[in-house]
UniProtKB/TrEMBL annotation:
This is DUF3043 domain-containing protein. The lineage of its organism: Bacteria, Bacillati, Actinomycetota, Actinomycetes, Mycobacteriales. InterPro entries: DUF3043. The keyword rRNA-binding does not apply. Residues 84-120 have a biased composition (Basic and acidic residues). Keywords: Membrane, Transmembrane, Transmembrane helix. Pfam families: DUF3043.
């Protein structure tokens, strides 16, 4: 019995691999058919293998470009790992400053936070997609806003009429007859405004079906969004109107 030396193991393994028995032809064909079938089943509807994400179609923006567009620049910061460590850092930072320096630092932080909120509000009012609220995001919502802002509706007086109804209910304690008459008139006007809102919802949904076949929002969502936009006074709308009355959308 010969002893196998360490440097001869590779040769033996190689030799065993070359002399290994081969599988029957029928068994190999079965494995090949299974492999081909498995690869076909592992593909999704887009024709890509499972686990492969399709390309976005655009390059990923660099962090520097995103920060420049937002008007902020990040610096290296080691975040505390625990709340206790965060408290200790705040105490140490406060102890390293004089009372005047600490007050000045807090004042500067408040001013920077207020400036950031002001900038975000300005960009949101201007319709910047990066600053819009989730309720206002989407190309369909943009079209609805422009469509409503370019036209006059009786619904624009919804809030003033609602305020008049509240005042009439308050004053009605002294003049019930007048209050009842005014209330009936106001209710009739509000019913007309609701009917106008229903027609507006149908109109904008029809236009969105024509312009955006792959719409991302339901008909009720778009109709209610148009109704709430039209019931707001023009100066109080958020985002601010980007078109003038009479413009073609």
């Amino acid at each position: 019995m010969s002893v196998k030396l360490p440097w001869k193991k590779d040769d033996d393994t190689h030799g065993d691999a070359t002399t290994a028995p081969t599988a029957p032809s029928g068994h190999s064909d079965d494995l090949a058919s299974r492999g081909s079938g498995g690869s076909g089943d592992a593909r999704d509807a887009a024709g890509l293998p499972r686990g492969v994400t399709p390309k976005k179609g655009r390059p990923t923006p660099k962090r520097n470009d995103v920060e420049r567009s937002a008007g902020t620049r990040r610096v290296h910061y080691d975040a505390p790992l625990t709340p206790k460590e965060a408290r200790e850092r705040r105490k140490a930072e406060k102890a390293s400053m004089s009372k005047e320096e600490y007050k000045e630092r807090k004042r500067r932080q408040r001013e920077e936070a207020a400036a950031a909120r002001r900038r975000a509000n300005e960009r949101m009012m201007a319709g910047d997609p990066n600053y819009l609220l989730p309720r206002d995001q989407g190309k369909e919502k943009l079209f609805v806003r422009n469509y409503v802002d370019s036209r006059r509706f009786a619904m624009n007086m919804f809030l003033p009429i609602a305020l008049i109804v509240v005042l009439v209910m308050i004053v009605g304690m002294r003049a019930p007859e007048i209050a009842n008459l005014v209330s009936l008139v106001m209710l009739f006007i509000i019913a007309l405004l609701v009917v106008e809102g229903l027609f507006l919802g149908r109109k904008v949904n029809k236009l969105i079906d024509e312009r955006f076949p792959d719409r991302a929002f339901g008909r009720w969502t778009i109709g209610f969004y148009a109704f709430t936009r039209a019931t707001m006074i023009r100066r109080m709308r958020t985002p601010a109107p980007q078109v003038s009355i009479g413009d073609t959308v």
